Structure formats: structure tokens, C-alpha cells
Amino acid sequence: MIYEPYDYQEYATQWIIDKEKAALFLDMGMGKTACTLTAAAELLHDYFEVTRVLVVAPLRVAQSTWDEETAKWDHLKHLKISKVLGTEKERVSALNKTADIYIINRENVKWLVDRYKSSWPFDMVVIDELSSFKSHKAQRFKALRKVRPLMKRVVGLTGTPAPNGLIDLWPQVYLLDGGERLGKTITGYRDRYFLPDKRNQNVVFSYKPKEDAEEAIYKKLSDICVSMKAEDYLKLPERVNNTITVQLPEKPEEKYRQLERDLLLPLMDTDIVADTAAVLTNKLLQMANGAVYDEDGNVQEIHNEKLKALEDTIEAASGKPVLIFYSYKHDLKRIKEYLNNENVKELSKPEDIEDWNKGKVPVMLAHPASAGHGLNLQAGGNIIVWFGLTWSLELYQQANARLHRQGQKHSVIIHHLIAKGTVDEEVMKVLENKEAGQEALLNAVQARLEQVL
User: Fold this and answer.
1) Rounded-to-integer distance, Cα 134 and Cα 232, Å
2) Residue 195's beta-bridge partner residues?
3) Measured between alpha carbons, how far is 330 from 141 in angstroms, rounded to an integer?
4) Which CA distances in Å does 297 have to 32, 73, 271, 289, 335?
5) Sequence ranges of the domains in the chain
6) 40, containing H or E segment
7) Rounded-to-integer distance, Cα 327 and Cα 312, Å
8) How far is 366 from 344, CA to CA, in rounded Å?
9) Are 379 and 371 in contact (CB under 8 A)?
């Protein structure tokens, strides 16, 4: 296929070529992969500035997205791809192949760094979904940090750079510039730009930006980070958000309130115990969905009201394909058993994606963590149902973007099953509030293309 880029894609490609440290904060579906591959091809074979490119990506994206994109466009077909995946023997074999671009899943980054150490051979590193490196304590961040001085060029790609607030930016930006803009340490970054927020005596749980800190951070990043929103450059179909309120019956609601109040719910042969706020919130989310793990790890069913609402929603779709996002393994099992339909399928392998996009799957079940990055599902349907919500703005946005993206031909309807008076309602509010905060960051570094094109 002949590549005919939009103006913003040409701008994004040139941004990568012009800068040794570059980040693209592009909405899902805007073609980050194609832009990056085009830039890499030019840097490899036209400018001769790099010799080996490493792409670090989520596993499912590493398995299919990058090489599929390379095969799709005529101007990229000459690129040689080697996927460093599978067993250690398979990964070593892939590294020994002659290629332009090597692709590895982020779980194996530490293994790769330990293998090469100071002999690091990749002069250009692309971090797909940069926001997955938002924890400075994670092994994947610590590993890449060690070899950052050995990288000539680094590119970071994400649509959600600060899913939980500006505090998440430091590790990501460090991997881009080695600490030039936001400092060499997370402690220094926090001291300069943040104040303690929620705390218990000397233990600080969260931080809030100091006055004018946001503007100062945005200014620091503006020379290497460019942000673009799909709504500004692409004509996407309408997105309709719908809340379906689920009323719990009296007895299940009493059990919910008891656990919420007492942190303990005695059942016939076991107990549901929540000894911390985090555990309590998790248990309450499970109960809102209809089942909960007890202290022995067994599933205790509380109600089936969400299952009824889900069935009604599928029926109302009048035969149109429905993509369902679930939260817990017992959600998956209960949904399958309740619907009891051979046409209900779980997204677990590449063939399932192909079947969905061909219209062969009326109901697809997926966990947002496994379907949240890089999958193109827009050809298969336009209806999403959130059986259980996630606290993660990143997962929520990425999962919705599997259908609401470039190439979707119909309005995308996103249903949220919300148990009335439960923590479901709070999660919805938090997602909305985080989304507003995310807007501030993206607006601050958004490319003003009309000024330069």
C-alpha cells in the first residue's frame, strides 16, 4: 500500500528525525507506529545516523503490530525485522540475526540489558507505550537507566504520558534525556515541583504540584515532547458514553454495606476480610460485579444483577458485535456460564482478533490489560460494555480506543455497568477527573501545526 501521510504525520516523523531525544504524545489511532518506522527507515538508510534500532513494546504489540505495519506500507517493506520473543534460546537466535529493527517485549528488557551490559549494541531505542515506564522502582526502568548513556537516540511513544498525575513523568522523561530536564533523581523532582498531599505522619502516600509547577514542567518538556489529539486532526466517528445503572437487591446490598462498614463479611463457611483500604476497595469492586474471593481464594457469588444487565445490553444490540471488558477471572467465568453461548469468545490469541474483525464473533470478552495496547479491533464492531471498571485511566482510554479509532465507520457506543451506591460510582468519577488532568498536560505541549506547516 502506498503511504500517503497526513500533515501531522509528516510533522511527527520529522520531529523524530530532527531530535535525538523525542516523545510523541499522540492519541490512539493516529499512526504513531507508521510515523516512527518512517523516521527509523530514513535514519537507517538515508541519513546513516543509526545502525540498529530496538523497539520495546507490550507483548501483544511486540508480537504483531510493528512487523504488520512494516509489511503494510510499500516504503517500509525493505526493513528487516527480528522479534526477540519466546524462550531464551529463541530470543538469542533473534538477536543473532541481521536486521534493521529488533523488537522485544518490556518484560524481557532486564534480560537484554544483563546480556549486553556495556556492550549495548542499539544506538536507537523506541519505547512503545512510554507510560508503562512510569515507576522509578520497576526493574524495567532500572535496567534501561543503566544503558541510557549508551543510546544515541531515544523515542518515547504514548497517548497517556501522565495517567495518574505529573509525578509519573520523571521516569519517562529520564529515559528520554538522562535527567537533563526534570533532574537526575525522583527525590529532586518531587522536592522542586511537588508538596506532600495524603500522608500518615511521616509516610507520604501522594504528592500535589506546587503553585505554577505544572507550567514550569510543561515548559521544560516543550522542546522534546509533542502532543497531538485525534479530534484536532482526524475525523473520528462520534463516541457515545452511556451509564447503565444496576440496582443491587436488598440482601446483597446489606452484605456490601457490612463489608464496607466492618471490613469483615462472615459467610456460611468462610469470611471475606479486608484489612487495608486498598484490599477493601478491591473487594467492594468485586462485590459490585457480583462475586468476591474469600480468605481462601474461593469465589463467593453475591448477586447476578450485572449479568442480567449485560444480557439485556447484548440483546439491545440486536445482533451487532459487542466487546466486553471484564476485571476479574471470576467475572470471565461467570459471564461465560451465564450467557452460555457458543458465540461468546475470549480474546486470547491473534486468530481471535482476525475472527472479530471479520465479523465472526458476536460477543468478545477481553481484559483491558491484554487488549489495551496496539490492537486494531475497529473493523469488527462499535459497541463496548464495561462489566467492571478499572482505576487506570491509561487502560481505560487504551481499551476504548480499540474501537474508537481511525478506520471506525460507525458511532462508538460505550456502556458502563454501574452498581448504584457502590464504589463503581467513585471509579467513574476518578476516571473523569484524571482525564481532565491529562488534558492539561497534552494541551501544554500540543503541536501548533498551523504555525509551522
Assistant:
1) 27
2) 208
3) 32
4) 41, 49, 11, 17, 19
5) 7-233+440-451, 236-248+304-420, 249-302
6) helix 32-45
7) 20
8) 11
9) no
Helices (H), 155-304: 169-177, 186-193, 213-221, 230-233, 250-262, 277-289
Exposure class string for 184-215: b at 16+ Cβ within 10 A, else e: eebeebbeebbeeeeeeeeeeeebebeeeebe
Q: Where are the alpha helices (DSSP H) in 133-212?
A: 139-147, 169-177, 186-193
Q: Please check the confidence at residue 145 and state whether its pLDDT lies above 50.
A: yes
SS3 content of the chain, % helix, strand, coil (to 5): 45, 20, 35
Look at residue 441 in the predicted model and tell me its pLDDT: 57
Per the CB < 8 A criterion, the answer to whether 190 and 238 are in contact is no
Q: Is 266 helix (H, G, I), strand (E, B) or coil?
A: strand
pTM for the structure as a whole = 0.74
The grid coordinates listed for 74 are 510499500
Q: Which numeric CATH code is attached to 236-248+304-420?
A: 3.40.50.300
> What is the distance, to the nearest Å, from the Cα of residue 304 to the centroid of all Cα atoms in its chain?
29
Mean pLDDT for the stretch of residues 404-429: 90
Contact call for residues 289 and 327 (beta carbons, < 8 A): yes
Q: What is the pLDDT of residue 372?
A: 59
The CATH topology of domain 7-233+440-451 is Rossmann fold (3.40.50)
